[in-house]
Amino acid sequence: MVRRRHGSLVLYHQNTNISSFSRKVSSTAGTLIGPFSDPGSHYHNAMSEVSKDLKRPSIQKRVFSFSKTSPSEIVRSKLSATEISHRALTYLPDDLLKDIPENDASYSLFQGFKASVDTAATKKHREGKNLLEESTAGGPNNVTRLSKERDRTNEELDLLGVRKSIASGEIREIDRKIAQLTAIRGVVLERLAKLEQEETQLEHDLLELDNKIEDIQYDMVEEGGSPIEAEEAEAGFMSESIYSKLPSPKGRKRQKRKAMPILHEHMSPGSEIKEMQCHADLITALDFDFPFGKLVTAALDDTVRVWDLNSGRSLGQLEGHHASVKCLQVEDNYVATGSTDATIRFWDLSRSDGPSLPGSNSVTHKRGPQSNQEEDFEDDMSAISSPTGPRSSAGTQDCHLLTLDSHIGEVTALYFQNGTLVSGSADKTLRQWDLSTGRCVQTLDILWTASSTAASEDSGWSFASLGRSSSRSNLPEANADFVGALQCFDAALACGTADGLVRLWDLRSGQVHRSLVGHTGPVTALQFDDTYLVTGSMDRSIRIWDLRTGSISDAFAYEHPITSMQFDAARIVSAAGENYAKIYDRVDGRHWNCGAGAEGGKEDRLSTPAIVERVRAKEGYLVEGRRDGVVGIWTC
Amino acid sequence: MSSDNLPYAADAESPLKEAELEVLRKQYDREGQYVSIQTKFNYAWGLIKSDKAIDQRYGIKLLTEIFRDAPERRRECLYYLALGNYKLGNYAEARKYNDLLLEKENKNMQAMSLKGLIEDRVAKEGMLGVAILSGVVIAAGVMGSFLYKGLTKRR
């Protein structure tokens, strides 16, 4: 067995040598075969390419040996240019000739040849035979004719058998090639993972250097100017509007990456990248900036934590909320969190101690499917067990920018973009905030607007929906957040509420200009792009609305209420009360499951994974938060 | 190998029709880089059956490739290489390949008959060669003797 293996290895090496030679051969074949009229120059071209191989003495010996040959052959092999090059091209080294294994194929090449050449002929034959049969009548000739017929049919059957084994042989051959290619793909993927690891390390170093340079420059300026001036400048800076801070690179350098990780795009969909024990309690909200970037999670244990998705390490906590955070959004380095303490806090992660991330320099984590999860796990657990320790909070204590506290009920949904933040609260209002001043610029009372719209419009469904919403409030589902989800773009705002309605607002007029009726349970998730609005609801359904017509364009339902949903051009990812995320592939219309509990997942888990509560997905990079505080990262 | 697994040399002397060869060539071209061994062989065998030396050479080239790429087909390839080289008149090669095959399968009818054919052909051409060579030698001897005579006469 070992010997055989060794043999095949040697063979493989030979094959690679040979194939490099044969590549040369095939590239010169055209020049050799084509122009026989002018062999001189082509011969030179060809020979200059094969001459390298010809310099090996054994080949020379072989090519020019003419023992036991006829004189005419000697003459030709010595004098004809094409003859010489042909011999060089078709030369087989002795070690190859010695290595001739037993043939265990079920058919010979010649049989294969006959089978494929005769295909057309036998088909014609069969048609003819059918005609013949019709004219068949009794007679003495008939027996011989029929036995002949039988022989031919037998032959045909044999041919068919050969053809069959040819086909299956070809399939085996292709399978082998595919297996080889997959193996190569695995190696390259590994290499890509390593490269990205190095890349992040370098970016990290770059950032550190940038910060050092900036610090030194700042110190030099400070030393040059009078201390009072500097203080004034500092004060002026602080009193400046927050908005001017947003795009400014002051303070800490904005962490903008030069390179984007692409590893997850090359892993097969549904494979696990990482699993982290982020909290000890149900994850209430999570979001991340980009694949392998920063993740912010919030849980019922009233903490908000920041994670480095690349290493799987905690970067610290966002401390300030007095109750658990129910919604949050991450955009670049800015984070908005809405809490049950009725406040919204706005954070800038780049103001943390940024690059000097705890422990990230000392340990390099191998990323990828085989990442050492147990080690991560222990580290993360230790970080959790000492949440007030200096390590976890030191890095992020400077992050807080703003507190928005006009709501009188818990904040259940928020969305910010371009300096405007819109929040929805259990006090049944939506508020629009100007992030540059930190002030509330508009308050939209959902019920008042709804009733006034209903009063002014005499279309039947508005009344119906109102009536339904009041009747619904008595149902057990009413413990859902009143404003389940919202998103704004420029002056357009969409919000989904507990009465199952999706309202489209115009922020300039403060009016609802359209209501989308359909959901029979509280809306818990909502997102729109330029064409579609997708909503998920406690009624277990996901609805896709066409914003141009205001009508429903697609809908489907799962087994349990939808708790979270996000979509992009390729897929709709949702959490639907299972221990895996539900994914609807928008391109080929396929539903599939991705996550720890999905079939085909790991069998050797110690316990069944908890139910997925929240999902976020960007560019095929899926992050899901579960009821037991575990966050799983997958490709989708 | 049973007797009908290999064609006899006579089979190689009957060329395919232009159109038939064209079909094989098209199949070979269509499969491109990932051509299957059977397709390659079909085309190569079609080429070897041809009566043009160019085709035969190309056929041998393809067979050489199969020999290199598919170890399990080497034994069969030996025979076709021997046959092709025999048709081209490269008797040394033909004999080498055929003898190798006979070494492995000393009861192979096709190879044995091919061996006989090669031997005949070499012997015939060898006789011819000896005849020509001896003719040249005689002519040279006659010329030499004339020259010698001339020289001695002049003296």
TrEMBL record, chain A:
Residues 353-395 are annotated as: Disordered. It is a peripheral membrane protein. It comes from the Eukaryota. Belongs to the WD repeat MDV1/CAF4 family. One of its GO terms (cellular component) is mitochondrial outer membrane. Its main location: mitochondrion. This is Uncharacterized protein. It is found in: Mitochondrion outer membrane. One of its GO terms (biological process) is peroxisome fission. SMART domains: WD40. Residues 383-395 have a biased composition (Polar residues). The lineage of its organism: Eukaryota, Fungi, Dikarya, Ascomycota, Pezizomycotina. CDD domains: Mdv1_N, WD40. WD repeats lie at residues 276-317, 318-350, 404-443, 493-515, 516-555. Keywords: Coiled coil, Membrane, Mitochondrion, Mitochondrion outer membrane, Repeat, WD repeat. Gene3D superfamilies: 6.10.280.220, YVTN repeat-like/Quinoprotein amine dehydrogenase.
TrEMBL record, chain B:
It comes from the Eukaryota. It is found in: Mitochondrion outer membrane. GO terms for cellular component: mitochondrial outer membrane; peroxisomal membrane. Gene3D superfamilies: Tetratricopeptide repeat domain. The keyword Mitochondrion applies. GO terms for biological process: autophagy of mitochondrion; mitochondrial fission; peroxisome fission. Keywords: Membrane, Mitochondrion, Mitochondrion outer membrane, Repeat, TPR repeat, Transmembrane, Transmembrane helix. The chain crosses the membrane at residues 127-148. It is a single-pass membrane protein. The keyword Repeat applies. The C-terminus is required for mitochondrial localization, while the N-terminus is necessary for mitochondrial fission. Has a role in mitochondrial fission. Has a role in outer membrane fission but not matrix separation. Belongs to the FIS1 family. This is Mitochondrial fission 1 protein.
